[in-house]
């Protein structure tokens, strides 16, 4: 069974999820899982825990998450497999294009055990952090 992905609120709830679904990827958005209001106020370590417990890989654009102790602990404790857009300033359509362009590699890497964070770049996917 191919991996499923949780999309952090930083990637929005329309353009990126729609593009990934069009590419055949099973995704869950923050708003779908928690509701719009709750999702906006949820601490990162809470949704990281739940994504890890459900076995979902994570798509986000906050590469600095690996430096914050609470979030890093959640990544480690729950063996989260995360993929982070390396350029946080991309427009939604560019984010979607970059993820879809790299989806074959992301799917292969998402089959590996976590915890880890890979950066998603215009020219490929490279490790940012691994335990």
Model description:
- A six-stranded mixed sheet has the order 2-1-3-4-5-6, sandwiched between helices.
- The protein is built from seven helices and six strands; from the N terminus they run βαβαααβαβααββ.
- The radius of gyration is 13 Å and the shape is globular.
- The longest helix has 11 residues.
- The protein has a single domain, classed as Rossmann fold (3-Layer(aba) Sandwich), CATH 3.40.50.
- Helices cover 44% and strands 21% of the residues.
- It has 131 residues and is α/β, with parallel strands linked by helices.
- Strand 5 and strand 6 form a beta hairpin.
- The model has no long low-confidence stretch (mean pLDDT 94).
The CATH architecture comes to 3-Layer(aba) Sandwich
- What's the order of the H and E elements? EHEHHHEHEHHEE
Oligomer: single chain
Helicity level: 40-55%
How many discrete domains?
A: 1
Cα separation of the termini:
25 Å
**Estimated structural class:** alpha/beta
Task: From the structure above, extract its key features.
131 residues, alpha/beta, Rossmann fold, 44% helix
Concise overview:
With 131 residues, the chain is an alpha/beta fold. Helices cover 44% and strands 21% of the residues.
Which helices and strands appear, and what pairs or packs with what?
Layout: E1 5-7, H1 15-22, E2 27-29, H2 30-34, H3 36-41, H4 44-54, E3 57-60, H5 69-77, E4 81-85, H6 92-101, H7 103-110, E5 116-121, E6 124-130
Parallel strand pairs: 1-2, 1-3, 3-4, 4-5
Antiparallel strand pairs: 5-6
Helix pairs in contact: 1-6, 4-5
